[in-house]
Amino acid sequence: PTPSPPTTDFRCPSAAAVAAMEVEEVPFTVNITRMNGVALAKMKVSNLQTVGELVESIKHAAQAQDLQLLLAFNSEVLEPERKLQECGLFEGCYVTAIRYPELFLAATYDDGTTKIWSAESGDCERTLEGHVSAVTSVAFAATGLSLILGKMDGTAELWSVTSGEHIRTFAGHQGPLTSVACSPNGKLLATGCFDRTAMVWDFATGKVVKACNTHRGTVTTLAFSADSKMLGTGSEDCTVKLWKVFEKTAERTLVGHEGSVQAMAFSPHGKGVASGSMDSEVRLWSTISGRCDWSLGGSGCSVCAIGYSPDGMTLAVGGTDGKVRMWSVGTGSNTLTIEVSRGIRKLRSVAFSPAGTLLATGSEDGALHLWGNQTGECKLSLQPHIPPGRHQPVGVFAVAFSTGPVPHRSLARPGNASKT
Fold first, then answer.
1. Cβ-count burial of 180 within 10 angstroms (0-12 exposed, 13-18 middle, 19+ buried)?
2. pLDDT of 418 strictly over 50
3. SS3 of residue 382 by DSSP
4. Which residues pair with 222 in a beta bridge?
């Protein structure tokens, strides 16, 4: 009998198998830097290496195996399991190494400069310069990867924290901006302006999703609720308005102040909103009923800044007398007074750290301090900003905290949360 011909397998290999066969190992060099641009190392890598393997190589070279590091490229935190070729890295590119957890503080100055400080070491990690007009307000995006700057020229600018690059400009107002806020869900931006309007923008598209234009005076302050569904605005018309961001219903107007509302903040649980005005009064309102639950007065000076502690139990109130007064939300009593600076209209901004143990203050005289909110002790005084050609520090307009870029979930471990 005639032997049967050999059987041939004509099945095609899978796309993944083909891709694996086609990928060749390609060596190249990357530059590892800190956020402030200081060079850390020049590493020879392979396109088939993972980000996690590169992190381990950096730690080994630095003899710091216990160090927790994130790598960022093009304003993106790189996930440890991704291969370098998937991240778009190329010969000679710059990758930013960021230690985590690390507490950062952004401060804007009268000359248009913004600095990002390490609240732990006191080092300036990044400086954003080149603004023609003053930067009046600042807010970190929820991811910690970028921050928003509100400017006197009426625009808001989105900047990368990791690369220091300008990403996008939000333009549409007809006057100087007074305030900016980023929603906790990371999707929205709000801007307040001298043109008596507030706008809510989509972070991804840069488009306006809501215009709030019923105030009869400058929108001086604004804030998002914890669930990102409500925007609060305060105005020179002595009112506070609460807007439902995704609904077409009319806003709720809170009436009671007898002076321009200069500061406001939502409680972390979202059921209350605090406002302070030039009549020296602080009011705590219910976001559900709209009634004033209690009010504080008697400081004898205008309120210029307000901040809730993360647990919602303490309210920090900054006054034009240069003092920050801590109030118990539960009892309405003054628990601590911190004398930040002396003189009229010195204090401009306050902010609690994410863990609530520190309070940052920025002042008109250029002072930038971190205080312990239990004792009122000054924990850190950051170096004043003196522009080239000047002999005196310029004032601090606004301050904002961030725990920095968020690590990939597979890297997050219990106990890694910032203690400050």
1. buried
2. no
3. strand
4. 233
Residue 25: closest CA among 10, 1, 47, 40: 47
Q: Do residues 277 and 258 touch, judged by C-beta distance below 8 A? A: yes
Please give the distance of CA 305 from its chain centroid, rounded to a whole number: 17
Provide the pLDDT for residue 411. 34
Please say whether the beta carbons of 157 and 170 come within 8 A: yes
Reference 121, options 59, 65, 38; nearest CA is: 38
Which residue bears the tokens 């601090």? 396
* Whole-number average pLDDT of the chain: 88
DSSP letter, residue 417 = S
How far is 307 from 231, CA to CA, in rounded Å? 16
Tokens of 329: 């939300």
Q: Please choose, from the candidates 10, 80, 4, the residue with its C-alpha nearest in 3D space to the C-alpha of residue 410.
A: 80
Q: Which amino acid is at 329?
A: V
Backbone phi, psi, residue 389, to 5°: 85, -5
- With beta carbons less than 8 A apart as the criterion, state whether 274 and 308 touch: yes
Residue whose tokens read 């598209």: 205
Per DSSP (E only), the strands in 63-145 are 69-73, 76-77, 94-99, 104-109, 114-118, 124-128, 135-140
The radius of gyration computed from the CA coordinates of the chain, to the nearest angstrom, equals 25
Q: CA 290, CA 177: separation in Å to the nearest integer?
A: 27
Q: What is the pTM of this model?
A: 0.85
Which H or E run includes 61? Answer: helix 51-61
| Phi, psi angles (nearest 5°) of residue 217 | -155, 175
Q: Which residue has the tokens 């002999």?
A: 391
Report yes or no: 241 and 222 within 8 Å, Cβ to Cβ.
Answer: no
Which positions ≥6 away from 80 have C-beta within 8 Å? 50, 51, 52, 55, 408, 410, 411
What span, in angstroms and rounded, lies between the C-alpha atoms of 405 and 398?
21
Question: Which has the closest alpha carbon to 151: 128, 175, 168?
Answer: 175
The pLDDT of residue 240: 98
Query: How many other C-beta atoms are found inside a 10 Å radius of the C-beta of residue 303?
Result: 29
CA 123 from chain center: how many Å? 18
| Percentages (nearest 5) of helix, strand, coil residues in the chain | 5, 45, 50
CA distances from 79 to 28, 53, 138, 316 (A): 20, 11, 28, 38
Give the residue-averaged pLDDT of 190-217: 96
